[in-house]
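Record 1 of the preview.
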Amino acid sequence: MGKVKAWLHDEAENAVDELVDKVKSGESVDKVLEYAKSLNVDWSFVGFTADYDNDHECWAEIEQFLWSNK
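->
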């Protein structure tokens, strides 16, 4: 994996870890999802549909993931 791809992957993994931490600390899924939408992250590097490919599907997947980690 090239340096840029590795960096993008690391950034996406860090963002997922942060979202999970927020949900587990008691923040609502809706609030954490809104926060996720404000991040400049390519979610496809951590297995979600890329938001530029299918916005609705991407956020639905992330929301389901957050609920499963609550």
